[in-house]
Design a protein that fits this description.
Layout (H helix, E strand, L loop, with lengths): L1 H40 L11 H22 L1 H5 L6 H25 L8 H21 L5 H11 L7 H17 L3 H4 L2 E8 L3 E8 L5 H6 L4 H6 L5 H5 L2 E11 L2 E10 L16 H6 L1
Antiparallel strand pairs: 1-2, 2-4, 3-4
Length: 287
């Protein structure tokens, strides 16, 4: 009996040992799984690089674990709100920006203080208004001035088919060459508007939209009246029969307007031939 009892006790003890071994093995395996979790959490940064579909499925539980820190980042805006309350700082910054922009605009204005390049269409309209005023003055005044008389004469003349076109081409070519020889800043403000020749007169219209620099340009030989004064020095001046030059200067809307007339010499018609000398008719009859 004792022997059997001892065997049964030994068997129970062996079973107990086996059971303890089986139970301790999973308990010893459980702790290593805990440090493995942070290793699994490391992949979220790699999710920005388009992972394969299988990886995205495996990462779903990790995305749930990442959401709590996102909630903490959403709480940052309230932390930024305290920086906005001081209105004086914002006002100072706004004033500073406006001052800077004003300074920049002032600098640009000082650099580009001159007028823009001349607008020939606008200058043409101003010259047309000036001519209309001169024509109206010629009708209302009993003794019109020389400019008005010249304008009225020009309006009454017809073209000279053998002379007008040739004269216009020479005048335009000389004045265009004079403008082309000017500095670029002077060229931008001068414009030859119109040249027209008739029987005895050629009309030249021009405009300048930078009157403030005219004195400086005049001393440098870049003023428009100096261009007109150079025409009598051209070889074609005498060949075409020109003998005189007049210029009217007017100012309108920030533009200096020039209307010049070149006068062609007109030869007086030859005197009628004297009747032939036939001698003394009375003596002939008496003889």
């Amino acid at each position: 009996m004792r022997r059997t009892l001892i065997l049964t006790i030994a068997a129970l003890a062996g079973l107990l040992l086996v059971w303890l071994v089986v139970v301790r093995v999973p308990l010893s395996d459980a702790p290593p799984t805990k440090p493995a979790k942070p290793i699994v959490q490391a992949p979220p940064p790699a999710q920005t690089v388009a992972p394969p579909p299988a990886a995205s499925v495996a990462s779903k539980p990790e995305e749930i674990s990442v959401k709590p820190p996102v909630a903490t980042t959403e709480s940052k805006p309230p932390e930024q709100k305290p920086a906005e309350p001081p209105p004086q700082a914002a006002a100072d910054d706004a004033n500073a920006t406006t001052d800077d922009s004003a300074d920049e605009s002032g600098d640009t204005e000082s650099e580009d203080s001159g007028p823009p390049a001349i607008d020939t269409d606008h200058a043409t309209d101003l010259l047309a208004d000036m001519i209309a005023r001169d024509e109206a003055a010629s009708e209302g005044e009993h003794l019109p001035n020389a400019v008005v008389q010249t304008l009225k004469k020009f309006d009454q003349e017809a073209d000279d088919a053998n002379w007008s076109d040739n004269a216009e081409q020479h005048i335009e070519a000389s004045l265009d060459a004079w403008i082309a020889a000017l500095p670029a800043d002077a060229q931008a403000h001068l414009a030859l508007i119109h040249v027209e020749c008739r029987q005895t007169l050629c009309q030249v219209l021009a405009a300048d939209n930078d009157p403030e620099s005219q004195a400086e340009r005049s001393s440098a030989g870049h003023e428009w009246q100096q261009a007109m004064g150079s025409l009598p020095q051209q070889s074609w001046w005498k060949e075409l029969g020109f003998v005189d030059l007049t210029t009217q200067v007017s100012v309108a809307d920030g533009h200096t307007l020039y209307m010049s007339y070149l006068l062609r010499e007109t030869k007086a018609p030859p005197a009628p031939d004297a009747p032939p000398d036939t001698g003394d008719g009375g003596n002939a009859d008496g003889g």
